[in-house]
């Protein structure tokens, strides 16, 4: 019994520590030197992440129908979290447009992808990318529409990540084999994405705003609880394989995406309050993520 517990704790540590280590490097570097990650983040979104997505989607081993129910589950977790917490906004006295997006749109990129890969191995990368794409697609359509009803959802088709997804699926579907001289640099660019996401998250943590700490703490509690609750409700409905359900449960437990703050700032939707929710939520994940890992591993 003791050896089993020790093995479990060791695996959780081996999963979480590399993430915390890279985030910490970003945090302490930014504390040492003033660091502007805006250009690096833009390059990551426009180049490195699309390269990673194309590399995964274009692989011959990638079979889209295999992940269809997982994708549906992810969409329901995102949307269901918002519906579940809608009445809570009135009880807390906060605007739904401010509080709900961080509860719905989680950190499936910066944290979700590396977390699933470290916990379950490289075979989890395609599923992690699918979860990331579903969350991002909903964020840039439903999420932006929540803040501005004039938003055109079709603008999402211009995103490099969506273009890379479509291109990768076409290559995979038609069994096209790219020459090594093209595939290798694409793979190398994609490998930059995950550590850069984690480093950027650490840099962002230096700007934690505790002015609205109460709402931030409530967000840190309710974001994972709502996602986990919806995922558990879906378990008997979707009939997912055990491993895929573990992916979905971890997806539901992820903290708010940093992108929520950027979008709130763009639409002037109480960005300082959103910053507290996002950053305190990510700090809180140091507690919630190991607990969920202990349950699924």
TrEMBL record:
<dbReference type="GO" id="GO:0005886">
    <property type="term" value="C:plasma membrane"/>
</dbReference>
<keyword id="KW-1133">Transmembrane helix</keyword>
<feature type="transmembrane region" description="Helical">
    <location>
        <begin position="12"/>
        <end position="30"/>
    </location>
</feature>
<feature type="transmembrane region" description="Helical">
    <location>
        <begin position="159"/>
        <end position="178"/>
    </location>
</feature>
<feature type="transmembrane region" description="Helical">
    <location>
        <begin position="244"/>
        <end position="261"/>
    </location>
</feature>
<keyword id="KW-1003">Cell membrane</keyword>
<keyword id="KW-0812">Transmembrane</keyword>
<dbReference type="GO" id="GO:0055085">
    <property type="term" value="P:transmembrane transport"/>
</dbReference>
<keyword id="KW-0813">Transport</keyword>
<dbReference type="Pfam" id="PF03547">
    <property type="entry name" value="Mem_trans"/>
</dbReference>
<feature type="transmembrane region" description="Helical">
    <location>
        <begin position="215"/>
        <end position="238"/>
    </location>
</feature>
<feature type="transmembrane region" description="Helical">
    <location>
        <begin position="184"/>
        <end position="203"/>
    </location>
</feature>
<comment type="similarity">
    <text>Belongs to the auxin efflux carrier (TC 2.A.69) family.</text>
</comment>
<keyword id="KW-0472">Membrane</keyword>
<dbReference type="InterPro" id="IPR004776">
    <property type="entry name" value="Mem_transp_PIN-like"/>
</dbReference>
<feature type="transmembrane region" description="Helical">
    <location>
        <begin position="68"/>
        <end position="92"/>
    </location>
</feature>
<protein>
    <recommendedName>
        <fullName>Permease</fullName>
    </recommendedName>
</protein>
<feature type="transmembrane region" description="Helical">
    <location>
        <begin position="273"/>
        <end position="296"/>
    </location>
</feature>
<dbReference type="InterPro" id="IPR038770">
    <property type="entry name" value="Na+/solute_symporter_sf"/>
</dbReference>
């Amino acid at each position: 019994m003791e050896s089993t517990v020790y093995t479990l704790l060791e695996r959780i540590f081996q999963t979480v520590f590399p993430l915390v280590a890279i985030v910490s490097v970003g945090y302490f570097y930014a504390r040492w030197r003033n660091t502007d990650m805006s250009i690096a983040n833009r390059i990551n979104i426009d180049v490195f992440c699309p390269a990673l997505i194309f590399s995964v989607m274009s692989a011959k081993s990638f079979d889209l129908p295999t992940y269809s129910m997982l994708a549906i589950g992810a969409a329901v977790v995102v949307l269901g979290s918002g519906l579940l917490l809608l009445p809570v906004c009135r009880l807390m006295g906060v605007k739904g447009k401010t509080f709900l997006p961080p509860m719905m749109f989680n950190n499936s990129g910066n944290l979700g992808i590396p977390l699933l890969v470290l916990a379950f191995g490289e075979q989890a990368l395609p599923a992690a990318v699918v979860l990331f794409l579903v969350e991002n697609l909903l964020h840039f359509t439903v999420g932006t529409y929540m803040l501005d009803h004039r938003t055109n959802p079709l603008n999402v088709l211009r995103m490099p990540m969506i273009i890379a997804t479509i291109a990768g699926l076409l290559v995979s579907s038609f069994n096209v084999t790219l020459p090594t001289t093209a595939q290798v640099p694409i793979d190398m660019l994609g490998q930059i994405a995950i550590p850069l996401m984690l480093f950027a998250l650490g840099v962002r943590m230096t700007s934690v705003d505790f002015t609205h700490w109460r709402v931030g703490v409530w967000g840190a509690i309710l974001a994972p609880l709502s996602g986990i609750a919806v995922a558990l409700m879906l378990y008997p409905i979707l009939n997912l394989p055990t491993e895929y359900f573990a992916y979905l449960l971890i997806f539901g437990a992820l903290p708010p995406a940093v992108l929520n703050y950027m979008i709130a700032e763009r639409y002037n939707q109480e960005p300082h309050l959103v910053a507290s929710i996002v950053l305190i939520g990510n700090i809180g994940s140091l507690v919630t993520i190991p607990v969920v890992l202990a349950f699924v591993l």
